[in-house]
Design goal:
Oligomer: single chain
Low-confidence stretches: none
Number of helices: 14
Distance between the termini: 20 Å
Number of domains: 2
Shape: globular
């Protein structure tokens, strides 16, 4: 059983704006409860603001509290699901990469810190004042989405751009994000993360990625160390471990098959690698997760 990947078309229901979805959060979870009631990933960028409600939000095996003022960001491929203790309220919007970047040719989604790197936290806690202000903007976005006013798409794009700018300012003020040494280092890290995502099943050594980036292994390590205070090997291992956890929990495969899928023909070696990184064996992790 694979983790379901939800596509933006599943939510649109004949909405006139292609590749964009906006809704109140309460309506969203009611309408789409059969789609979102179990762990899943997306092929789009997502932003949620909570004005009421409590619970937890699990994103790639990290659990975060839900409360008023929380904003969550998700990139394509991240696995998540919600658990609510009280009725949530707020707003949600999501869109394809093309929907935003075709309108802002000189400004990519990766330039926002919450979408830039997997190393940056996928959430933000707003102050009461900021929550009141941004809730009004989200409401305006929702109203504009539902109505057929003149220059509707232009205003929607402007509102989303404004929301992302305001959230970036709050995010960089309240959250410790990676210190990017230079634009060239930021570019190398971004390309490295994409390469790791594409090749980690078969390529587990820094040398492969350094060659792909046309730099030395030593320089690649320097870039990773300067930007996120880790080694290239650690970054590769973290990506392997994330996929291992996804497969262990969200598939019915036996653990030897999981190891084989990840490129480890020797299950004992894989189990040892997993325990070094998590403090438990794959079987213990599967049991604890479903306890």
């Amino acid at each position: 059983m694979k983790i379901p990947v939800l596509h933006i078309s599943q939510f649109l229901k004949n909405k006139p704006l292609h590749s964009l979805y906006v809704n109140s959060f309460a309506d969203h979870i009611q309408i789409n409860k059969n789609l979102i009631n179990k762990p899943h990933s997306h092929n789009f960028y997502l932003c949620v603001i909570f004005t009421k409600g409590t619970g937890t939000h699990e994103i790639d095996f990290d659990t975060y509290p839900i409360e008023p003022g929380k904003v969550f960001f998700l990139k394509p491929g991240q696995t998540h699901f919600w658990k609510f203790e009280s009725q949530p309220e707020g707003y949600i919007f999501f869109h394809s990469q093309e929907f935003y970047e075709l309108k802002f040719l000189d400004h990519s989604l990766n330039s926002f810190p919450f979408f830039y790197s997997n190393q940056n936290p996928p959430l933000l806690q707003l102050s009461k004042e900021k929550l009141i202000h941004l809730t009004t903007v989200f409401q305006e976005l929702f109203t504009e989405y539902r109505e057929e006013n003149l220059l509707r798409e232009a205003k929607i794009i402007s509102l989303i751009h404004y929301i992302y700018i305001e959230l970036t300012r709050a995010y960089t003020a309240d959250t410790i994000i990676e210190k990017l040494g230079s634009n060239s280092y930021a570019n190398i890290l971004e390309r490295l993360e994409k390469l790791i995502n594409a090749h980690f099943y078969t390529e587990k050594l820094p040398k492969f990625y350094a060659e792909k980036l046309s730099i030395t292994t030593k320089h690649l390590n320097r870039v990773v160390q300067k930007t996120i205070s880790k080694t290239t090997t650690t970054l590769i291992s973290e990506r392997i471990m994330l996929e291992a956890k996804r497969l262990i929990v969200h598939s019915n495969d036996n653990l030897a098959n999981v190891a084989d899928t990840l490129g480890y023909s020797d299950y004992a070696y894989f189990s040892k690698f997993f325990k070094i990184n998590t403090g438990m064996t794959p079987m213990e992790f599967r049991k604890i997760y479903f306890h």
